[in-house]
Amino acid sequence: MPKMRAGDEGDRLTSSIEADRTRRRCVAAAACWAAGGGASAQAPELLLRTASQAGIAIKFNLNRPGPPGFCVELVRWLEKNDPGLRFTGLQRELPLARAILELRDRQIDVFFSLIDSVQRLRQVDFLDTPVLYESRHQVAVRREEPARPGNYAELREASRPDGVLITHGTVYAEALQQVGGFKLQALARSNRQNLEMLLRGRARFFYHAGSTLRAEIAAAGLSDRLVVLNTVFQVQKQRVAFAPGLAPEARARVARGMAALDARGVLADLRARYGLD
């Protein structure tokens, strides 16, 4: 997939939040222990609470036909790598905003996966490395749409007067708010609803992660009517997120497993399997 820079606006946004981002990442004891490789056979049992994100089959798809999802397979690999490590709660499907609140309030211990946005950095903690995958901000349009915006300024102009479709509770509204000057339509609670509104002409552009847009369009059988444009407006990283106050040894156990899977090429294989590479 061609990657096109959206201009200096995205670069300035990235650099402006870097100081806040480093404040909350989990890089101390967890990262040091992770460097040791795979889990020890003598490691004690550890049960961590988690949940699935509703409506994102590319990440969580336990209850429907098709592959189980990137995050579900990742959890299974972590358990396979460390027989004493177990995760409970994947059968619970939560809207993303609810999952973040439960993580913040320590009702769950770990969540796969979140972008470490400014707002989220104030609520929960993140594992710095390895990154799960990159979310490339792109737009979906109707196939007959003539506009091909190549940067934020062009997207802002082309989206007037209707604005840009955004799925409620996602990080993509925050991204466009930081750029400034966009009218946002963020009423839809699911990506599928936004695809339907795009088809009905409620707006000309649906702004989201390109990989998710392509997967949702294909799953809905709309590839003949909708397309994802090539321009990448911004790139953000999806990471493992922890509840604040989670025990350092629990964080380290997850970090150790993630480092082992990354070293063995499991993460790269999963990214390729789900079109996230």
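That was protein one. Protein two is written in the same sequence-then-structure order:
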Amino acid sequence: MRLSSFLWTEGPRGRNLPTCCRSLIVTLADTVTKGERNLVAGGHEEDVLRIRRHFQSLMEPHAIVGRRVVGFISDNHIGPDLGVEVFILEPADDDRSPPVEADSDDPG
């Protein structure tokens, strides 16, 4: 949550951090700031989401996760106030799991 706190001043509350082999999925709740709530109330929900996507494009998640991140997907939802961040990690040195094929049903 340090990264979100650094970029947004206020860190979101609520998170879930399940990991599986090469992926880390973070779910967030209560992420919208007071200023963003005012924009949403004024009909600017899409502007809030667009600005958040710009900030998310600046993130360097490998510094927080501790392993090289080879893929990063982040998105937000206003009503209800939720977010998700998906980190696809480089295999660890001791990770003996086989690589996941693109058409595999295994998500991670």
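Residues 2-89 form one domain. Keep this in mind for the problem set.
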